[in-house]
Design a protein that fits this description.
Layout (H helix, E strand, L loop, with lengths): L11 H30 L12 H24 L6 H28 L9 H32 L14
Length: 166
């Protein structure tokens, strides 16, 4: 009765790496959001200036925290699984999420241009540049992650959505 129903023992390295990344991701997310809120609370709209660019830094950090948290969850979930197909699939998922993170970070920083642009063509150009910049990074990331999901028999644990509302 020694080998009935227990499956594989968890890979300790994957479990520890997963826990570390989950905690680090949570810390980055909270720190980024607190930083963005702190910058917004110090902003004086009566001066006539746009909001400080540092808000984008805080939000970018929060996005990276969510990405790191999600990568940690994939490592944690993969601790019990074995095989080259599963491991390669998880690598593709992680690379896909990193590309998505780059796209979101660059997109947030590009969207800051909306504060300086005039209503109309200038704002529309910033929105188009932001959407294109996000798509350049996020579409390959989504494709790699989708391939990884199939290889590792996984599902998306975090999703992102962009609505440019023209």
């Amino acid at each position: 009765m020694a080998g009935t129903g227990s499956g594989h023992r968890p890979n300790v390295l994957f479990s520890v790496a997963g826990i570390v990344l989950i905690v680090a991701g949570l810390c980055l997310t909270v720190y980024g959001l607190v930083d963005a809120v702190q910058v917004m609370s110090g902003f004086d709209p009566l001066r006539g200036d746009g909001p400080p660019v540092r808000i984008a830094d805080g939000m970018g950090l929060a996005f990276w925290g969510i990405i790191v948290f999600t990568i940690g969850r994939y490592l944690w979930r993969g601790a019990r699984r074995r095989g080259a197909r599963d491991r390669f699939g998880r690598i593709l998922i992680i690379v896909g999420y990193v590309l998505l993170g780059v796209g979101l970070d660059l997109g947030v920083h590009e969207a800051v241009g909306l504060w300086d642009s005039e209503i109309g063509d200038g704002a529309q150009a910033v929105v188009v540049r932001t959407a294109v910049l996000v798509a350049i990074w996020a579409i390959p990331g989504a494709i790699l992650a989708a391939i990884g999901f199939r290889m590792a028999s996984e599902r998306a644990l975090t999703t992102a959505e962009v609505n440019a509302g023209f």
